[in-house]
Amino acid sequence: MTRILFYLEDYSHDIWRDSLLKVAPGIDFRSYPDWGTPDDGPAYAFVWEPEPGLIASYPNIRAVFSLGAGVDHLTRDPNLPPEVPIIRMGDDGLKEGMAEFVAMSVLMHHRGIPSMITKQKNKDWGRFFAKAAKDVRVGILGFGALGRVAAEALTPFGYQVAAWSRTPKNPVEDVTLHHGSDRLDDFLANTDILVGLLPSTPETQGLLDKERLSLLPEGASIINAGRGTLIDLDALKAHMESGHIASATLDVFPEEPLPSNHPLWGLDNLIITPHIAAITRPDTAAEYVVRNIARIEQGDAPENLLDANRGY
Ligand SMILES: NC(=O)c1ccc[n+]([C@@H]2O[C@H](COP(=O)([O-])OP(=O)(O)OC[C@H]3O[C@@H](n4cnc5c(N)ncnc54)[C@H](OP(=O)(O)O)[C@@H]3O)[C@@H](O)[C@H]2O)c1
Predict the structure, then answer these.
(1) What pLDDT digit, counting tens, does each position of 138-164 carry?
(2) Ligand 1: which of 181, 198, 272, 306 to mutate, most ligand atoms within 8 Å of CB?
(3) What is the set of active-site residues?
(4) How far is the CA of 134 from the centre of ligand 1 (A)?
(5) What structural domains does the chain harbor?
(6) Fewer CB atoms inside 10 Å of the end CB: C or N, the chain?
(7) 308 Cβ neighbours under 8 A, 6+ residues apart
């Protein structure tokens, strides 16, 4: 019988157990701390932010499923056994959620909504006439599972969509593709609305520093829904206060929750969302986990296996 060791703090585990049992009625679902003992036989961990050392203390774990697409909550554990495969979440619910969030945010920045929220506080009628979508250049940093669905959500509006990745990709209709660090500066200089969908790796941390942000055209907007380490927040604040960057939406931060005394809370034209751009849905995640356990047990590679060298 397939055994799943589940860990998630602060939320009920019932919906996760019910969703998994609906997809695979024979599953042995064990909710932390009732994981049993390592002698109980092979198991799969399905976790979010487990206590450091927990995975290592269960040598019967064959693979670890991350409850979200990010894996920094696992890899920061110094005792994580390097031989245990880690599988990133890639359920359809996550993709649909990100497509909605990016489409909503791009439309809001294109139509000047963040500045109207600021003006409304001052009873300021100041009107903003947006450009046609076909004249707005949207640049997506990261063209993985989520960057792709974000691009697909945007092209029907007529935006000029471009995307940047580490390695080359096959051509995609209506999306201009770029890759490699030597293309980044030019990419930024030709982007009106920048969408961050990059993982946190040594190469992406601090990538959008003061100089890189200054490459964006005057009046550009930024949406970051990948990882908070991408942007130097002090530099972003300075660029927004000078008006060089007109508006931004930040869903992810280097420290979460964003501390209550952080100066970003009071910044005009900035929309802060509490890491909710794309949330793993129990129903679609259960299908994803059960499907990938079957793949592992058949000797096939699971989807979205973490490449430890790449870091994502
Ligand atoms: N805010 C939220 O609610 C939320 C929800 C889910 C996920 N996320 C975040 O979104 C991120 C993206 O998810 P995903 O599923 O799309 O990941 P993914 O499929 O692994 O794609 C990552 C993309 O980033 C590119 N990339 C990585 N390092 C790069 C570098 N140094 N230079 C240029 N491109 C680089 C990759 O390029 P290659 O393809 O060439 O390797 C790939 O296109 C995740 O890492 C996660 O942290 C956030």
Answers:
(1) 999 999 999 999 999 999 999 999 999
(2) 198
(3) 227, 275
(4) 26
(5) 3-91+280-297 (3.40.50.720), 93-272 (3.40.50.720)
(6) N
(7) 75, 82
